[in-house]
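re: that complex we talked abt at group meeting.

here r the seqs, copy pasted straight from the sheet so there may be weird spacing, ignore it
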Amino acid sequence: MTEPRRGAGGAAGRVRRRRVPPLIVTCWVVLGLLVALAVLAPMIAPYDLRTQNLLQRLKPPAFLGGSTDHLLGTDQLGRDMLTRLLYGLRTTLGIAAIGTVIGMALGVTLGVLSGMFGGWLDDVVMFLVDVQMSLPFVLVALTVIAMLDTSLVVLVLVVGIAGWEIHARVVRGQVLAVKGLPFVEATQALGARLQRVALRHVLPNVISPIIVLTTVNFSYVVLLESALSFLGLGVQPPNTSLGALLGAGRDYMMSNWTLPAIPGLVIVTITMVVSLIGDWLRDVLDPRQRD
Amino acid sequence: MPHFVVKRLLRGIATVWFVLTAVFLASRAAGDPITFLLPDNATPAQRVELRQRLGLDRSIVEQYALYLRGVLTGDFGDSFRERRPVTQAFMERLPATLKLAAASLALAVALGVGAGILASLNRNGPLDRLIMSLTFIGQALPNFVLGIAMILVFSLLLRWLPSGGYGDWRSFIMPVITLGTSSASSIARLTRSGMLDVLKQDYVRTARAKGLVGAVIVLRHALRNAALPVVTLLGMQAGVLIAGSVIVETVFAWPGIGRLIVTAVTFGDFPVLQFAIVIVSASVVLANSLTDALYTVLDPRVRVA
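got the structure back, here u go
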């Protein structure tokens, strides 16, 4: 969008800049709540993750007439769904957080090196960026998983390399732009080392776009992990994630529609909330990146 | 052919070669395929015999050369699981995926371009906001959640549509919508912003001053230029649709390439996976190159440059 988006109540762009729109406040609150639930999962979960009770199989949630012993009902092995949902949220957000950080670190490092040194290093990095951008990443992920077999470490690595190329491209571009500025050339002429130029002049210029890209990448990584786990190729039992819960619940949706619906709803909530926050951050931090 | 199309093509070939090599190295690093191919009680003689037949007793360089020769002559080996050429297994499932992807792309273009034009003509009006909100949801909604939500509503609750399988036109409705939604949303957003840029330009004002009808201005004058970024996006949709089909085909039990790939990963069927990756990357690269070529037809400025 070329024009600034209006906040609630038709507030003009200038006002919006100072005051955070209520929708965004709500998003932050929801995100904070989800993160808190994920962090506290082992403490607040009513049952143990693995406790099965075959006499209590496939019970409906309390709001559909089930007992209050299992607020969200139970799955096909009689495990408490609220407990599984909390742990699933924990796994999904945890993997996404680590994966996003890996992608950012890798991308920023390669982007800075590529922009600072140029030459063959730049060619190699940019070729890899090209390759990754032209391939559907799910396929790359599936290949890696087929080769290495799935595990938490493999999964984190796979989602970690999922977003590096965008970071690398943006950071490299910024490095090239900053490198040509007269004052940077002057500091180099005065004998400043590359390291100093990178840390003092380049990094401050790329922090805003990096924050925005990281937000975008975070929701992408949540989706990727969920998709892989949904296919049964991500998080493996007895561990669980939101995607794994959705995939497992799918087999029982004829009788218990809440089994897939609730984890699905949580996944959508995460991606929506993070996307809205990302859009808002982009408007606030980096007006140039608006689409 | 313009210079830059040739350059893109060469880049694309380099990409495919890179993928080929990476997949070759990865599959050799993943372990001995003999263990997948023979039962546990196979005799050492059988192992040696199979190893020789597959060329695994040669040096890695020789194996690589054989592999590349196989690729160039269309021989990608046999599927571990189905015991027949992977090309055969692949071709059998290709029509189902192509039909699904083509229908989804058609839906995405029709819906996306239409909604984008409507939104741009109602800039900041209620219809624009509604469309933009819908496209936001369409982009944030993961296809596996959308697919399952639709099955819950239209198959289980309302009993209007089959919950999966590959049959008559009714079995297409939900998979096509599931696969096409995110593309439709991106296309709508890009069409809208392209139209907004174009509509405020002088030549559109001139057309209006000449007394041309609104529809003629929009379709003949504005859309033609607003469509340029959309065309680029279409090239990228090839990859999006292929990645999406992996999920959508699993959700709707659709007997296509996506399902074949997931099964290959589950069973460690490397030849199938290798072939799928090579074909997919080649078609994505080809789609991008075709997009570039199409660009030169649509935008005369590119031809000169």
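couple things i noticed - Residues 93-257 of chain B form a domain with the MetI-like fold fold (CATH 1.10.3720.10). Residues 27 and 270 of chain B are 7 Å apart (CA to CA).
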